[in-house]
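call fold(seq) -> tokens
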Amino acid sequence: MLYLLLYPFADRIALFNVLRYPSFRMLMAGLTSLLIGILLGPSYIEALRLKQHGVSAVREDTPESHQKKKGTPSMGGGLILWSLMLGVLLFADLTSRLVWAALIVTLGFGAIGFADDWLKFSKRNSKGLAGKKKLFWQAVIFLAVMAFFFTDWKSHGFLHPQLTLDTHLTIPFIKVKSFHWQMGWLYLPFAFFVIVGTSNAVNMTDGLDGLATGPTIVSAFTFMLLAYVSGLVLKGFNVADYLLIPHIDGASELAVFCAALGGSAIAFLWFNTYPAQVFMGDVGSLAIGGALGTLAILTKNEVDSAIIHGVFLAEILSVIIQVFWFKRTGRRVFLMAPIHHHFEKKGIPEPKIIVRFWIVSAMLAFVALASIKLR
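ret:
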């Protein structure tokens, strides 16, 4: 918003000229979201505490030690969404379809999570929104974004729409020119799988204080770097071509979104770190997962996101493996799933599990970034 409002006056007020640089607006979006989150946090959490008084936000399928957390309010992920939205609206170029696509998916998935959380509290320990309904509304949001932002309905007639989204697949550690699989319309179900899978994986990870928030921060800033270099052109020199990664027009604006996401997640971690003053809830975890999955698609790091989101992937795979093996043999692979509960059952203190998962997330981010240079 500030870019569109103030930059046209840069010829008269030299200070406004800095708004032309995505790098400056990235820093300002991240800092703004961070400050807004920290300033709004105390009153927001107090409002949640009063609203949810007498309702437990602790999941039933958790170790017994988690019962001491009763009374901690949930739905704190709304703080992330407010901070993110304000940071993006203030400093992103609001003519960018990439920014709007990422923002709408994030807020849309957040709305689904809010409905799920609200049903749990209003019905007192209800299971919330049914899984099929969640999937249906996620599909509606995904298809609406694809139809509005990434489909050309005019060039070949309304009955023959053309995707304007880059539908080729990139593989980590392999040069773009060495592997070029054009998926066409098959890319849509694949993209939906990536986004919804990431959303559910973050939701599974949100089981310990700050456990999902730490890897979210790492992923947000990793995608910020990837988006920035994918769209960066310096005096006619295309940085993406030099790095042998896909060049994406306008991706540098998407980096502003990533910075705001990282800043808002840091602000939330201020209150969510052990022992947590507030839980994220589905309003936060589904939204964050939707955002990260969308970033993977829009920056052409669909497969690389499996490395970047390795912690989230391990969490959801542990649940799938546990359920599959138990139904097949009647025995469990892990003491409890998701896998962070397995380590709790083994007697490892919660803070140690959390920090170690953060460290693993950072290591995986370095591997993902290394894949660029090693192409």
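The radius of gyration is 21 Å.
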